[in-house]
Every structure is written in C-alpha cells, then in structure tokens.
C-alpha cells in the first residue's frame, strides 16, 4: 500500500478525553477512529491488524476441532428468561422493545441462543462432543468506557462453545483449549499467564488469561517461584502462600485477554438440551465456553509494546511487515523514486506486505516520525545517500542500530 | 469435513411459518437457523457459503482500489440530525436511548459516520479519490420479514463509499464499480441485470442489479431486443418503448442484489467534508455509495438454482466442492470404508473441499437425499458395487447422468 493512497493519515493529536496509551497511539496512527465513548471504528490499518489476529485465532480454533459459525446480535427475551438471566443481565445488556412490542437484547454472550440452536442437532451421545465458535460484534453497557479498545460498549469477541457427554470429556477438551489459548497469545506476541479465577458455574474455578501491564484493571497474584497465578477473588479466599509450592506471591496489575468457563448443565437443563446416552438414559449436555476479545488483544499488544514515539507491533500482527521510506529531494522521476518503486514492486510480488511512504510533500523527519508511530517491524530507507553506495538502509522498529543492505541482496538480507 | 462430526444435521422440516424456498432449503440443510422473524444464524455450512461470497466481493472491491475497514453498529443521533435524516429514518432504523439518556441508532447504512470520519483524512485534492468498504451486520425495522434471507431485520451488508474531487472522476469510478459488480454476480453464479432506477441524490438515476426470479419482490421492465432494463418507478415516468432501441418491454419479477448511488455533496455539505482544489478554492467532496447484501445473494442463488430435492450450488460458492458418500453395508473396517477414507484424505491433501458422509447409521436413500438437499456440485459414491470394478461413481448435482472413474484416475477425472 502506498501511503499517498491510504485512506487515513496520521494525526497530531488524539481526542482530549482519551487517556489510554492504546487509544492515543491507535487514533493518532489512523488505525481506529472514535465514534463515541467506548465505540470505535477500525480504519484500514487497524482492520489489517485485527484481521491478522482473527486469522491466528481461527487457525488455532480450527485445530482443536472448532467449527466456525455466525450467530445473531438480536436475542430473544424468552430464552434468557428460561435461564433466569434476563433481569440480571439488564445492567450489562442493551434491551429494548421492537415495533411489535416484543423485548429484544443485543448479544454480549451467546450461551442461550446457541443452546437453543443445538437442540436441532444434538440428541444422542453419538452427536457429542461438538465445538463451535464465532468472531462477532458484541454489545455491553459500560458506564465508564475510558480505556480505548480495552473496554468498549461495542467490541469484537471470539466465543467458542463446547458440548460434551460427560465431565471427563469436558475436562480433557477444556485443557486442550487452554493450550490453544497459550498458542494464540504467543503467536500474537503477548505473554499471557493462565490465572485461576472464580466464576465457574460447574467446577468452582474458571481460568483467565492475564497479560501483565501497568494499565491493567485487574489485580493478580503471581508466585515468584513456580509461576502459578490467581486472581483477586481466589486470593482473598486462599492464603498468602502459593498452593502449589508454598512460596510468596507478587501482586501485579494485568489485562484479561481471555477466559474459559465450565458451564456444566446450567444452560442445557434450563433450555432442554438433552441427549440419550449409550444405556438409553436421557441426560443434559455438559457445556463450556471460551472467550477472547480480538480488539482488546490488539490494544493489549499496543499497551505492552511501544515507546515514546509510537507502537512496536509484533511481527505476526503488524499491519505491514516492511515500512519503505522514500527520501526524494528532487521530486518525481528521481533515481531514488525509481529504485524505491522497484523495491516496492519486487517485495509485493514476493508476497511481503509493504507500506510504501511515497509521499512527495513530507520531510524526512515527518516520514521517520510516522514510521515510528505506525510501528511496522522493518523500516527500509532509500535516499540519495544510500544509493551512492547502491544500498538500502535497514532498521528494526525494536532496535536502535541501523544496517545497510546492497540493492542486489536486499531480499536475502531482509530480517 | 466428516458429516459424522459436523455440528448440524439435516432436518425433516423447516419452521411452519417459512414460506420462501431459500429459508426452507437453507434451514432443512442446516445452513442457517431461525432466531425470530427476519433474524437468522449462520451455521457452519452456511457460514462457509457466506465466507466464499464475501471473499469474492473482497477480491473485486480490492481490485477497484477499495480499502477494507469496519465501522461501528452504534451511530450518533447528532450526525444524522446534521443531514436531517434522523427523524425520517425512524421507520427503518432501530433507535433507542442509552443509560445516560443519549439517543443512539443501529446502523442500516454508513454515509454519516464515514463522512464524519473522512474529515480527519481528506482536506486536499491530493487526498482524492478514495474508496473504502466494509462487510458488516446491519439492522433494519421490517414489519413483515417473511422472505428468509431475502429481507431481514439483521443482515450482512457490503457497503463501499467513494470520495471524489469532481463529477467526471465520480462518473468514471461509478462505471468501474458497475463492472466490478457484474464480475461479482457472474462469479457467484447469478445472472444480474443492471437496471435503471430512480433514487439518486445527485444525478436523477441510480442503478440496481436485479436477478430475475418468480419470488422477486420487485417489478422490472426488460427490453426483449437490447436487454436494457428499468425499474417500476422509471418505467412509470417513461414510455412503453425502450429508450435505447424503441422495442417493447417484458415485465419481470426480480430480486435486487445490489445498488449503486451517486450521492453528490449531500453528506459532505451537511457534515462539512470539504477539500481545497488545485486553485485553492474550498469545495465539498463528491460521494457515491455502493451496496451488496451477501446473505441476500446467498438466498438468491438458492432461489434461482434448485430442484424439488434441494439446492444446486454454483461451484464458486458451494460449501464443499465434493460430497463423498460411503455406502458401507458391513460397517466399520470394510474395504469400502478404507477406500472412502483414503479418497477423503487424498482429495483434502490436494486442497479440494470434501464433505464426507461417513455416517454408519444412515441408509443409502437417506445419504443420497441429504447430498441432493445440501447441493454440492460433485457427488462421489464408494460402495461394494463400485469397488467390484475398482471404480467410484461420479454424479454432478446439476445433471442426471451417472459416470464412473477408476480409483487410480479419480483425481484427473474429477469434474
């Protein structure tokens, strides 16, 4: 993509009411645009990052047998009344009446409708286990939405749901998904700690995946010896010593990027999702649910990987791998432009993502500042000075050193 | 995908209140599931079809320079008031107050928020032209939602918006997108007629893309000589003769699968999206918008391509290219199963989509009925009878004849 053609421009300032670093950098870089408190639009650069995150999530969900589907935003009051959650959900769920007077909610989670849909398809032990997931926009009433993409009123969510015949199978799959979650966070480039939490409906515990960060809204307790982590609620119930090895805890602030829950039979019992076991007995299906917020994950990557000049994207989710800067004092048809154009075309043909700063009306200082703000991993510079030696300057966004590659060997020397 | 593992099953009956063929076949096939009138969930098979349609659309939108982004569902009353559309939109827009008393709408189109966002990025003729698009869930009040995916209260929409410095550039790009639309509909496998329509805000005319179908809600007039088509409103204004060649019209029912509008400066003037031209004068940006409903397109493909037994998917959007049927009288570990397993693995390795009916508890009749209902283009059958001659039976969903290929040459003989 040529910067001269890109829909967005970098901005000098983010809105005054944006305190969080992720919103500041993402808005200034033109990755996102603010609609209202807690509601953002993904501009083309931001959508590229999100798409890469979503595809990493898809690959790992498919690898554990998850089948992708796409539920509706509108949800029926009836099924939420059946699980006795409609009234309790009022605080977080946008609920309203349609023109016929029927009450609807905007989905913030999909246990009820998916359990209802599964009744068409699950009736025997032979139909189990099953796992389905979606990546979808969800809605949540948030009184104080002030953390950029970390806490929104409208946000993307990956939610996986699994269906099992017995607890042993649920436990096995739950651990399989926990491993897939570890892989996702590693691939996205953030270090997430599996953290014991309360809130499971079936077993006493659930698990959260927490990324240590100054701006985190959560408090977790990490054992300095064995790495075991637990959240505030679990910590309040337990002692001051790690239950695994007896050592002490360190209190840390963190951002929750994922969570996994054993739901047991709460939803299947309430909505009548039964199956017939091998002996012919009717039993409620055992369920679990597993969430990741792709937008929150993007924001977390920004919060934990930046410097005063801008974002430092992990390579796997960078909008472009290479940011190619043309410094072109003579304007159009210069040798520099000719070489930079050729590099842009050659790398693009090789399937390498390149953001090409071909703008004619920007100074070298402005171009370097934008490259640092946008945060692509590799910066290439083509200028009169580099061409005197038939070279291209190479700098990694996360390093200080500058190196040079000969024009001929650029592709093989590209980090 | 093995049918024994697929989340969904085919159903004997669709809900009694579903009159449309698309809803009947898509629900019975397990492609979609009904939540309430006009609201459907895409189950894994349906999501695969939709994903293929979306990707065809993406390729053609990218080819005309469209940059993908993702706007928000929540929209501000303020900007809709600025264009004087808030009150008029009440009939089609879900509008409600959030907990702070602020009025919000659920987006059914995105001219206002996109024009507002573009103000950050467009200020000079050098920033033009630009084109951006999204594929996103939209919402629309529909009193009588009874046509399956053809008319929903919640539905996917691809909306492209373009920004221009002058009308000449707008006209050029508008025609470029019209050609891209033709390509999309051809690739998806439906025959769409570009149809003159009223409703343009800038020029007098807009264009609709209409697919002839008995169940269409629209009436269009097609010249039997030159193929020129116009909609009801244009026809009422014009004469009974084709304006291009003077011949008569045939009245046809049709489904609108896309539309393109020249918006002119309505939105840019109201919301202050100006640019400075080469002479230094300030002017409002000229805009156009271009819509396609991917879900409606999926439904249209079903409406125009089916028989009494089920769907006949165009190859480009079929959930799977091959439906492999194992007829296995001896049960597990038979020669038939061994051969079918190997075909499934071999074709999958070659990157061919295969839906493999490996179910043990279904009769041949049930398996053939499901293959016809699901509508994949190529049906392969492995049975005791075919293996006696080391063959596989091949039948195309859209033909009656049955052919045979030797096991060795299956891949090269696959249609």
From TrEMBL, chains A, B:
Its EC number(s): 6.1.1.15
CDD domains: ProRS_anticodon_short (cd00861)
Domain Aminoacyl-transfer RNA synthetases class-II family profile residue range list: 34-314
Record's keyword terms, sorted: Aminoacyl-tRNA synthetase, ATP-binding, Ligase, Nucleotide-binding, Protein biosynthesis
EC top class, as a word: ligase
Any one GO molecular function term: ATP binding
One GO process term, biological-process aspect: prolyl-tRNA aminoacylation
InterPro entries membership: aa-tRNA-synt_IIb, aa-tRNA-synth_II, aa-tRNA-synth_II/BPL/LPL, Anticodon-bd, Anticodon-bd_dom_sf, Pro-tRNA-ligase_IIa, Pro-tRNA_synthetase, ProRS_anticodon_short
GO cellular component: cytosol
One Pfam family, short name: HGTP_anticodon
Taxonomy of the source species: Bacteria, Candidatus Yanofskyibacteriota
PROSITE patterns found in the cross-reference section: AA_TRNA_LIGASE_II
Name of the protein in its database record: Proline--tRNA ligase
Catalytic activity: tRNA(Pro) + L-proline + ATP = L-prolyl-tRNA(Pro) + AMP + diphosphate
